[in-house]
Amino acid sequence: MRHLIILLSFAVCVTATAQNDASIKDDFKPSALNQPGQQFPQVNSQGYARFQIKAPDAQSVVVSLGLGGTRGGTPLKKGDDGVWTGTTAGPMEEGFHYYHLTIDGGVFNDPGTLNFYGSTRWESGIEIPAHDADFYALKDVPHGNVVQVLFPSKSTNTSRRAFVYTSPDYDRNASTRYPVLYLQHGWGEDETAWSNQGHANLIMDNLIAAGKIKPFIIVMTYGMTNEIGFGGLRNFKIDAFQTVLVDELIPYVDSHFRTIADQPHRAMAGLSMGGMETRMITMNRPEVFSHYGLLSGGVYAPADIKDKSKVKLIFLSCGSFENPDGVKKAADDLKAAGFNAVSFVSENTRHEFQTWRRSLYHLAQLLFR
């Protein structure tokens, strides 16, 4: 994923077609993210992806995988019927992947699949079934709600949007108040990402149903107060978004939802750029949040935190192909300095949503205990 903090050199094992390889099992099924009734793209039990596009007048069709095509391209081959077909040269890693089509040099989304906001545009998405998908699966358990709210922002002179997850029991227990996690997306995404790509609501529903956590509210809002293109985040200043989050959104949430409106019951976490924002804001405003989570979003050093007594938890995570040694060492240094610090490394994942789904699953079980 093309975010600040870590830009990975992704393995380009998906840069050629492989439909003649006898080792590929012919058990392809439509991706779980396909539009209703659409048969392509398809995924087999080994994790290969197969794409099919009807473009009879095209001269070239390439599937560009990852945000902005950062994970390589899969050229498709044209049939006599004008249908282009191709299979990735190798299996893709488990979890969610963005992609788009490059047809004769133009960029298009695949009409066969759903779209997800990433890379500052709506991208196509494909899901490679994961061995541990059960924790974010849609199950027959009580489900909470994700509601859209529009809150006034005097500092930006706009109405801004947030999505708020409330647990299955929220509407039934009218006297109960809840802790709140403010959860931020990565660069190029928006406030829809954690629900659509990350399945944050299903992760919460399943954890609550299993009795592994006590319910809390999650608030997800857009993390940019001005549009910055790729590469421009080095010049990003936190002040404007910090004002939106701390001085405008939090009071709105506390007045419109049944929150426990104090620092011990308020957490902030984010992936990639959202981790950068979390780190800056929690250091600037330690009186606001007590639980911190950086998911592929950097680390804290003990010297970064001036008042240890205000911090109940520091959670640091990444994929095993990112910076696992750095994350583990940072957590160990924090623990040696007397902080309640936890590190988590997602095995066989990179800077991608499978890392962050797993991270949220583990973080949620540590919050507000």
Which terms summarize this structure?
2 domains; Rossmann fold; alpha+beta; eight-stranded mixed sheet; disordered N terminus; 27% strand; 369 residues; Immunoglobulin-like
Describe the structure.
The chain is an alpha+beta fold and 369 residues long. The chain folds into 2 domains: 29-129, Immunoglobulins (Immunoglobulin-like, Sandwich), CATH 2.60.40; 135-364, Alpha/Beta hydrolase fold, catalytic domain (Rossmann fold), CATH 3.40.50.1820. 19% of the residues lie in helices and 27% in strands. The chain contains 6 helices and 19 strands. The strands form 3 sheets. An 8-stranded mixed β-sheet has the order 12-13-15-14-16-17-18-19, sandwiched between helices. Strands 4, 5, 8, 9, 10 and 11 form a 6-stranded antiparallel β-sheet that branches. It has a 5-stranded antiparallel β-sheet with strand order 1-2-3-7-6, with no helix packed on it. The longest helix is centred in the last third of the chain and has 18 residues, at 239-256. The radius of gyration is 21 Å and the shape is globular. It starts with 28 loop residues before the first strand and ends in a 5-residue tail after the last helix. The model is unreliable at 1-19 (pLDDT under 50).
